[in-house]
Write a structure and sequence with these properties.
Layout (H helix, E strand, L loop, with lengths): L19 E5 L5 H13 L15 E5 L10 H4 L1 E5 L6 E5 H7 L3 H9 L5 H7 L2 E3 L13 E2 L7
Parallel strand pairs: 1-2, 1-6, 2-5
Antiparallel strand pairs: 3-4
Helix pairs in contact: 1-4
């Protein structure tokens, strides 16, 4: 009898299988969509999920400019940035950010839900966000991920 057969099998570079997903963000709520995407990027939907290894999938988000925010968040939610210099703090509402850089809201929301450090940065590199409905990743044959629009 093999005594090591009961041990947990962890994912590694040789055994991990990554898929490509396309998510349409049109009409989806920002936070709810970001949490589902962070779940995919971490790999928690897989049987062989390994917390200390990046075993997640690639995610392509299209129509990021048509993301929805509930309530009055488009006008009242404020994002702060700080350059590090005195007087270098800047603030912008979600509506202003969406008008200037349509992909930034989605990227910030997903990044905040990933682990901090080297592992989280590696997971974040597998996220591709596009404002329009086209993307250059058709060669990878991504599957369309259908998310429930219900809350």
């Amino acid at each position: 009898m093999d005594t090591l057969s009961y041990r947990t099998q962890f994912e590694n570079k040789e055994t991990v299988v990554r898929k490509w997903w396309v998510v349409d963000a049109e009409g989806q709520t920002l936070g709810r969509l970001a949490s589902k995407i962070a779940f995919l990027l971490r790999g928690k939907h897989k049987v062989g999920y390994t917390p200390h290894f990046d075993c997640g999938d690639y995610v392509v988000i299209i129509n990021a400019e048509k993301i929805a925010l509930s309530g009055k968040k488009m006008d009242q939610k404020v994002y702060l940035t700080y350059s590090g210099y005195p007087g270098g703090q800047k603030s912008a509402t979600a509506g202003e950010i969406l008008a200037k850089q349509p992909t930034r809201l989605m990227e910030n929301a997903v990044r905040g839900m990933l682990p901090k450090g080297i592992l989280g940065r590696a997971m974040y590199k597998k996220l591709y966000v596009y404002a329009g409905s086209t993307h250059p990743h058709s060669a990878q044959k991504p599957e369309v991920l259908i998310l429930d629009s219900k809350k």
